[in-house]
Amino acid sequence: MIVQKSIIVGFDFDGVIAYNPARLARYPISVFKQKFLGIQKVSFFVPKSPLERMLWSLAHESSMFPAVGATQLRRLVEEGRIEAHLVTSRFGFLEPNLGRFLKRWGLTDTFASITLNQKEEQPHQFKERIIRSKKFAYYVEDNWDIVSYLATKKLPTEIHWIYNLFDRNTPYQHKYPYLEKSLQHMIEP
Fold first, then answer.
1. pTM of the full predicted structure?
2. For a Cys-Cys bond, which of 39, 107, 114, 138 suits 86, CB 3.0-4.6 Å?
3. Residue 166: which residues within 8 A CB-CB, separation 6 or more?
4. How do residues 109-133 score in pLDDT, each as one tens digit?
5. pLDDT class of 1 with cuts at 50, 70, 90
6. SS (H, E, C) 32-43
7. Exposed, middle or buried by CB within 10 Å (0-12, 13-18, 19+), for 78?
8. Model confidence pLDDT, tens digit, residues 17-35
9. Other C-beta atoms lying within 10 Å of the C-beta of residue 146
């Protein structure tokens, strides 16, 4: 009998594992930054003050439900077909919120590792560093700015993009409407 090796996969959290309706705002914000503010380089806000962190925490409460495909991911992990690693650019102060979500939906044991952005690095650079160190076969991300950045870095990892309603017409080879479709691509021969 041939034992099939697990596929090692990294997953973003908000918009990939957790459904997050607020992610619909990313595309208009990105367009505004580029067209009206002239910001072409990928950069993200890092909350520093107590007020900023409180508002950031409230904004991340919008990830309330598991995404379509979270149950399938749990099953694939239990079957040994996927070794799942959670790599979220959520800053360390959001760890309690993340833990509550994973526990509430029975997803804590789904992940072989959970890596948060404890050093408050720029999210795209943090994810590049972790992807390189973990050597994932696939990484699933919903933020187009991060996907487009990673696509230029010649990673040995296939980057899957979970697009949304507003950016669905953006061309990209490995784009999917939700997690379940991305997982199907990974496990089908």
1. 0.85
2. 114
3. 24, 26, 27, 28
4. 999 999 999 999 999 999 999 999 9
5. very low
6. HHHHCCCCCCCC
7. exposed
8. 998 766 555 555 555 556 6
9. 24
Helices 179-187 & 70-78 angle (0-180, nearest 10)? 30
DSSP E strand boundaries for 47-137: 65-66, 82-91, 111-117
Q: Mapping DSSP to helix (H, G, I), strand (E, B) and coil, where does residue 50 land?
A: helix
The pLDDT value recorded for residue 187 is 92
Pairwise CA distance, residues 11 & 19, whole Å: 13
Tell how strand 18-19 and strand 65-66 pair up.
antiparallel
Architecture of domain 7-187: 3-Layer(aba) Sandwich (3.40)
More confident: 39 or 174 = 174
Distances (CA, A) of 45 to 72, 121, 130, 167: 33, 10, 20, 21
